[in-house]
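The freezer alarm interrupted the setup, so I double-checked each line after restarting. Inputs confirmed:
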Amino acid sequence: MRKISLHDASIGLSDITSEVETNLMGPIRMVQAFLPHLKQMKSAAILNVTSGLALVPFPIAPIYGATKSGLRSYTKSLRVQLKNTTIKVFELIAPAAKTPLNDEFRNLDGYNVKQMDPVELVDTALKGMAKDKHEIYPGIARILFFMSRIAPGFMLKQLSKAGAKEMAG
Ligand SMILES: NC(=O)c1ccc[n+]([C@@H]2O[C@H](COP(=O)([O-])OP(=O)(O)OC[C@H]3O[C@@H](n4cnc5c(N)ncnc54)[C@H](OP(=O)(O)O)[C@@H]3O)[C@@H](O)[C@H]2O)c1
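Predicted 3D structure, all chains:
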């Protein structure tokens, strides 16, 4: 998850898309490589980790949100295509969590997001999988889901506050 000002002309074309490579193409390639093996199992599961930022863009990390929205779309298609197999497809719509991923954002001007304990987050994910919940929304991700439906413009405005100065060009 990278903080990127799209005004920054020094960012090269392969650099700007590096998150797509890791966050979107990585999981797609991995699933494709494992599918033949998983299909031979009595039961199997794929858990793709997206983000609340798949639901509402976080403009200071513009590529990250795009990769997570893409992964969410792909995961829904994967679930449909695997419906007649023994493979279950889960999506963990993770909220902000206390991990190094947020180091760059924690002290950003206008950033005011409660970060979940990663142990609690993983625990919720495992419980969700045990209950066959295809889409798992720990902590504030559930609220973000409803708010992104009810008031998408308002939510985008809220998430646009972090790094507003840097994004102003
Ligand atoms: N933390 C949050 O607030 C949050 C919120 C929503 C979703 N998520 C998602 O949760 C997942 C885990 O994130 P995290 O918070 O645990 O992040 P993190 O603490 O930054 O850890 C990221 C992990 O990804 C590995 N990684 C990064 N680039 C890689 C690459 N090019 N190839 C292979 N491995 C690579 C890192 O490996 P090294 O340690 O070897 O560098 C590290 O183990 C991610 O999919 C993230 O998008 C996190």
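Quick read of the result. The radius of gyration is 17 Å.
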